[in-house]
Amino acid sequence: MTDQTSDGGLSAVAKAAQQASGQARGQARGQAPGQGLPPVHLWNPEHCGDIDIVIRRDGAWMHEGSPIGRPELVRLFSTVLRKDPDGYHLVTPVEKLRIVIEDLPFRAVAVEREGTDLVFTTDVGDAVRAGPDDPIVVETDPETGEPAPRVHVRRGLWARIARPVFYELVEMAEAADGRMTVRSGGETFSLGAVA
Question: Of 91, 105, 86, 114, which Cα lies nearest the Cα of 185?
Answer without folding.
Answer: 114
